[in-house]
Structures are given as C-alpha cells and as structure tokens.
What we know:
Elements: H1 4-24, E1 29-33, H2 36-43, H3 45-54, H4 56-78, E2 84-88, H5 99-105, H6 107-119, E3 123-127, H7 136-142, E4 146-150, H8 160-167, E5 172-178, H9 179-184, H10 188-202, E6 208-213, H11 221-240
Parallel strand pairs: 1-2, 2-3, 3-4, 4-5, 5-6
Helix pairs in contact: 2-3, 3-4, 4-6, 6-7, 10-11
Amino acid sequence: PPTGDQIQQFRASAQQTMALARQHDLLTMGAYGMVAEMASWLVGISQLVMLTADAPDFLEALLAVIERWHRERMALALEQGVDLFVRRAWYENADFWSPPLFRRFVLPSLRRDVEMAHAAGAKLGYLMSAASIPLLDLMIEAGVDVLLGIDPAQDRTMDLPKLKQRAAGRMCLWGGVCGYLTIETGAPDDVRREVRQAISFLAPGGGFILSPVTNVRADTPRAWANVDALIAAWRSLREDT
C-alpha cells in the first residue's frame, strides 16, 4: 500500500491540480487503476491466460490481492474530488479475455470500481484501445460511464457504427483519432479524414469526446501541425453542425 510520505506528497500535489482545474473549469481525472492488467505485468500475459484454465482458483486469489492494493490507491484519488477515475484495460481486452473469462475474472472488480466511483460522486472510465467491441455489453452491464481509447487505425476489430449503436445512451465514447499512426506519423489530410469519420459516426446524439488515442508523445513539427489540423477540423465541423 502507499506509504505515509507518498500519501502526503500525493495530497499536496492533488490540491494544486484541483485548484488549477477549478480555475479553468477543467475535468479532473484520477489515473490509473489496475487489477487484471497488473496481473498480466506480474505473471506475463501468456502465463496469465493459461492460469484461467490451469489454476483458476489461484488466479482469483491473485486478483483479490491486487484489488486490495488497487482499492487503497483508488480511494486516495477519489477523496480529492476527481470527476473521473480511469482504470487501465490495455491488457483486459478481448485479445486475451473471452467474454466468459472476462465475466468471471474481470467483471466483478470492474463492477466494484463503478460502485466505488459513483459513491464518491465520480464517473468510471475504462481505458481499452483494442478489441473492445466483444466486451461492450459486459462493460455496460458493469455500469462503466466512458470507454476511452477508440482507435480507428490500430484496432483491427473497430467498427465505429456498431460501437455507437451499442453504446448510444448507455456509455460515453472517448477517442476517434489514432495518436501514433495519424497524429505522430500521418499527414493533415489523414487527421481531417479521421476527425470527420469520428464525428460523423460517434457524435450524433451526444456522448462522444474527440481525442487522440491514447496520447501524443512526439514533440516534432509534424506532430504539432497535425494537432493544429485536428483542432481546426473539429472547430470547422462544430460550426457546420
């Protein structure tokens, strides 16, 4: 668990962050929670998948230990009054967890995350940038408020119209533009095309946040030009609608 010194440092930093957010009316995010994803780091993803068949009781016990650690960290973030708490799920997707395995090993703690966030007045975000569509109904069943990581370029399973149809009115969608292939290494025309596509399919009826997935790390003239192109395309489409 976090030490006393770590908790003090976190609270001091969080106070500054929350004050800045209030000053500029910004959404605040607690990040990141980890349960099954942490297990994949500790055990190795191949071995973890094998444990679902070879030693499921052991895996459930391991996940319970990790969840206790996760709960303490989540509580610290929520006590700051964040708007959104985000759980990492890059390795909780359907490439590794079939819907039945997800229901048994991942869904219970995800439900508890949602309950804990909602009890604190926050929303629960789930960060999954690939193979999310087979698990959508389970996320909605858990009560997830927003799915982050909608990547039309790197997620080979992504179907934006299907995603919107199944999530509409039940779960917010966040993303729509690939951070690496489009913003970091693409051209402005690529950016404009993905922005138009994302807004066309995901924005009708609301419940969509346009953003690069998952982040932009390159500090290059190309990346900055493409960020400018994304903002300009968004503004143009917003004015048109």
